[in-house]
Predict the structure.
Amino acid sequence: MQIVDAQVHVWGPETAERPWAPGRHPHRAQPLEADELLREMDRAGVARAILVPPSWDADRNDYVLAAARRHPDRFGAIGRFNPEAPGARGQVERWLDEPGMLGMRTTFTLAQKPALVEGRIDWLWQQAEAAQVPMMALISHAMVPLIDEIAARHPRLKLSLCHLALPTDVRDHAAFAEFDKLLTLAQRPNVSVMASCLPAYTSEPYPFTHLHPYIRQVVEAFGPRRVFWGTDLARLPCPYGEAVRLFTEALPWLGEDDKAQIMGRALCDWLDWPLA
């Protein structure tokens, strides 16, 4: 079984030439650079990782693309995209031309909800569907109905939702208060979910038993080919290896083939990133 991490933010130090976005702060004081990530992956038995630029790096994709070009057997990139930036409409068609680029990441907070409701970025879904650009979206459970509408209108658009659409500032039962909303999206075959950074959503130590029933619900609803394991490593409150073992050892109801799908095979198929 080849293990593939569906999302890790990597970044270098802030410099005068490369300032961070105003008001944004990293998950940890020291940068998580690509070389450190490789060492952590080797220790945890992770074969590959999808690199995503963090929000504080001001929507720049050059760092993750450079790492993917240096280590094409270990890294792929999902580039950050701001659909309301100048010139955005002209970028989608050529998005996958960059070596190492496998898809596009967008973030929709409640402040950005009007852009979805008012249809100001409907062109994005149309262009991404036409260009077959897989999309990862960071949303809240409150925005699930809008994603459902988008997925229904664009059935060939691949949409993957980060961190099971969980809120980032609460844990335990509060984090899963509206979890049922996410499960309604299972009816859309073009929607997948990332079971990423889950140890950050519980106050329990490994084996994180509070998470187990929610993981089972999402796997039963979406199926193992539309659930992608990941860590968002810089946010983890536990060692990398424990996040791996949560799925490989702590869920006895998960069959070996289903485990292989969730831990990497399904993600690579979704992104058209063939495994060795």
Remarks:
- The radius of gyration is 18 Å.
- The longest helix spans residues 256-270.
